[in-house]
UniProtKB/TrEMBL annotation:
Gene3D superfamilies: 2,3-Dihydroxybiphenyl 1,2-Dioxygenase, domain 1. This is Lactoylglutathione lyase-like lyase. Signal peptide: none annotated. Residues 15-166 form the VOC domain.
Length: 190
């Protein structure tokens, strides 16, 4: 299995501990993440003062996906708090400080099997995207320039999820893009 493995010279990080998301219906979230995706529920608790709940699911490799259910959480705003569509099917922009999507690493040899399995469970999945360095950065077919294969789907609250697998090791030439700044943004007028 290909995964990046580089040395952090500042902190000894062991990966993502957990990502905390917000759901509208914790029972439906448990059903999807444990029932459909097979992630064991490892911790659940009610928050103080009736504020809500916090549940943790084992995402494998020592990482967890956690959910808050807040009694007074506002609804999702597609195109603002989350993308309006799945990558490959429509607009993927979301607002600054939001989570655009959550990607799970899957074994390359099981990639197609897992896509079929989700479809068999009734999950709507987007097209397979073979990410490469071409003009549109995606190819229909797998070729030596593809660095990651992925497909996207959503959970019951519209959170965009991705199953992805690396297909090659990275080199110094993979990090030559010049970072943009706040001044480069094209923010629409209110």
């Amino acid at each position: 299995m290909i995964k990046p493995h580089n040395t952090n010279t500042e902190f000894e990080l062991g990966g993502i501990h957990h990502t905390a998301l917000v759901c509208a219906d914790m029972a439906r979230t448990v059903d999807f993440y444990s029932g459909v995706l097979g992630m064991p529920l490892i911790k659940s608790l009610d928050l103080p003062g009736g504020m809500g709940q916090h549940f943790f699911f084992d995402a494998g490799g020592g990482s967890c996906v956690a959910f808050f259910w807040f009694a007074e959480a506002p609804d999702r705003v597609p195109g603002v708090s989350s993308p309006d569509a799945l990558p490959g099917l429509g607009e993927i922009v979301s607002a600054v400080s939001t989570m655009n999507h959550l990607a799970f690493h899957v074994p390359e040899e099981k990639f197609d099997e897992y896509r079929r399995k989700l479809k068999d469970k009734g999950v709507r999945v987007g097209p397979v995207l073979n990410h490469d360095e071409s003009e549109w950065q995606v190819a229909r077919e797998l070729h030596p320039g593809v660095y990651v294969r992925s497909f996207y789907f959503t959970d019951p609250d519209g959170i965009t999820l991705e199953f992805a697998c690396w297909t090659r090791q990275f080199e110094a030439s993979d990090t030559t893009t010049v970072p943009k700044t706040q001044a480069d943004r094209r923010v629409p007028a209110p």
